[in-house]
Amino acid sequence: MQLSEERLQELLGNVQKPLRYVGHEWNSITKEWANATVRMVLAYPDVYEIGMSNLGLSILYDLVNRHDDWLAERTYAPRIDMEAAMRAAGVPLYALESRRAVAHFDVVGFSLQYELNYTNVPNMLDLAGLAPLAADRPAALPLVIAGGSGTYNPEPLADFFDAMVIGEAEDALPELLTAVEAFKAESGAGGAKEDLLRRLATIDGVYVPSFYAPQEDGRVAPLQEGAPARVRRRIARRLGPVPTRPIVPTMQVVHDRAVVEIQRGCSRGCRFCQAGMIYRPVRERPVEEVLDAVDTVLAKTGHTEVGLLSLSSSDHSGIAAIIQGVLDRHQGRRVAVSLPSLRIDSFSVQLATMIQSTRKTGFTFAPEAGSQRLRDVINKGVTEDDLLNTAEAAFSAGWNRIKLYFMIGLPTETDDDILEMARLIRTLAALGRKVRGRTVDIAVSASTFVPKPHTPFQWAPLADRATVERRQALLREHARGRGIHLSWSDWDSTWLEALLSRGDRRLGRVLLRAWRLGAAFDAWSERFRPDLWRRALEEEGIDDRAYIARERCLDEPLPWEVIDVGVRRAYLVREWQRAACGEVTGDCRRECRGCGITAAYADDGADTTWRCP
């Protein structure tokens, strides 16, 4: 089925933001359907303006469409008004480029980035006319797969997917699509699904959930001969080509700018940070490659702002040369450069001064914890002097607004740590008034910490609701002052995120039931219904406290350990124990800390651009 222009216009007549659903943006790619040997639709389980801001999806779109014989198109979760119109008219979920039904593609690939989007997966599959559960889809094609950080604990969504790509898809996805292409050539439309899945299971980094089963002790064990006991995360040796012709949205999106990934991975070892563990090792893009990519992407999009993306942009060894190079090459065009993540030091202020010489907006710090004791527990590697000196430099350079990121509910946290957080916030506000001679804005975001898989804190419990809400109130009471603005996490959203990120395969039944009860768009406060989730848990006979309210034993098998991210369990245990003692572990750029990624990354000695010693 291909949606006609006339029928689409009928649907769009009564929906908000119709530009979400029309496609045909600048730089979008529409290939000849009949000429493609493999057809893939990239599905993002949230609305257009959020999915269009996801760099990973842009990379995959470019990657697949570079292949002459393959095509990739896009689909996003329609909002409630559009979904209702589509269901009423009998229009299935479609791809934006060709407006063909998603069910007609060979591969449907979901990007899983945030747990509160998970109910949109069965909803989108159902809207596409596909059974939400993989076991109820007997045909080999379309193959429904997933990738993204959500797959590092694949179990809560395991029953919905035929396969999952674990890790970086630059190498793994082409191998998977090649296997699909060969399967189609040999078997046509009538090939057995299990035959295709067996092929996929031999690809490094591909997890086939139906070939594994949960065990009583909590492990996930292979059922099929040839399925590895643990699926090793795929690691790209080099950063792939920058998508230099990214799609230009026809409406405002969350990050409405050009983006160039300058570095992947982080060497700092913050114990709470999943991204810092699962994206190791650090790999830098060379300075000239970055500059050439910036030139091209600005020319091909018309954007006047470019984001230099990394987990810690100022850690790139050539970051100053990159910024100066962009400014020199684009003099007179008022091209803005944004650095989404900076460390707390004077060098970051120098960098920010370089890129905001004409306007001072905001400066962001992430001390994460208020007391030095707790910053040492989480291995943040930042002192109060670092923060105050950097803030003073920022105020002196003309900034009037600082944003601070903290967490509540970290392991070993006490009320005293919250009081120290409040004191630090007041101190920064006073420092700003002293330096600027006026009230400055201090925007404070205090999110609730969620212990994530594959981190040293994966054994920790989620702090209980009463404690979190009491400490939020304590912070509000003691962090008052002119120019101080506080925001904090909603408990129910935190609870659901923790449940889904730390769960096992039994939670798939809960997710399916919650969706059938009406849960969808849980990340949107106006749509979130935690009562539906609690009802689903009760009806499935599952106690949420078993997943989130207890500290797990160090020798306890964990459901996500079917995935090998390349970081040794022994290293995570050691860091968990060092956290309990408040011992800091240094940056692994300076000295190898024995996390195991070196062994996981080793091969035949091919040249690399990563920076692990």
Provide structural commentary.
The chain is α/β, with parallel strands linked by helices and 613 residues long. It has helices spanning 5-12, 48-51, 55-65, 80-89, 120-127, 169-187, 193-201, 274-278, 287-301, 319-329, 346-355, 372-377, 384-396, 415-436, 465-478, 491-501, 507-517, 530-540, 545-548, 569-580, 597-601; strands at residues 38-44, 70-76, 107-111, 143-147, 163-165, 206-207, 212-214, 220-222, 231-232, 258-261, 263-264, 283-284, 305-309, 336-338, 363-368, 401-408, 441-448, 484-488, 563-564. The protein has a domain at 5-232: Cobalamin-binding domain (Rossmann fold). The protein contains 21 helices and 19 strands. α9 runs parallel beside α10 (319-329) and α17 (507-517) crosses α18. The longest helix is centred in the last third of the chain and has 22 residues, at 415-436. The termini are far apart.
In brief:
By secondary structure, this protein is α/β, with parallel strands linked by helices.
Question: What brief labels describe this structure?
Answer:
alpha/beta; 19 strands; 21 helices; 613 residues
Category by helix and strand content? alpha/beta
Overall spatial form: globular
Q: What are the segments in which pLDDT stays under 50 over at least 5 consecutive residues?
A: 604-613
Q: Give helix % range.
A: 25-40%
CATH superfamily of the domain at 5-232: Cobalamin-binding domain
Largest sheet descriptor: 6 strands, mixed
CATH architecture of the domain at 5-232: 3-Layer(aba) Sandwich
Question: How are the strands of the biggest sheet laid out side by side?
Answer: 2-1-3-4-5-6
The average pLDDT value, as a whole number, equals 93
Number of strands: 19
Distance between the termini: 54 Å
Rg (C-alpha, Å): 24 Å
> How many H/I helical runs?
21
Beta content: 5-15%
- Output the CATH class name of the domain at 5-232: Alpha Beta
Q: Would you give the CATH topology of the domain at 5-232?
A: Rossmann fold
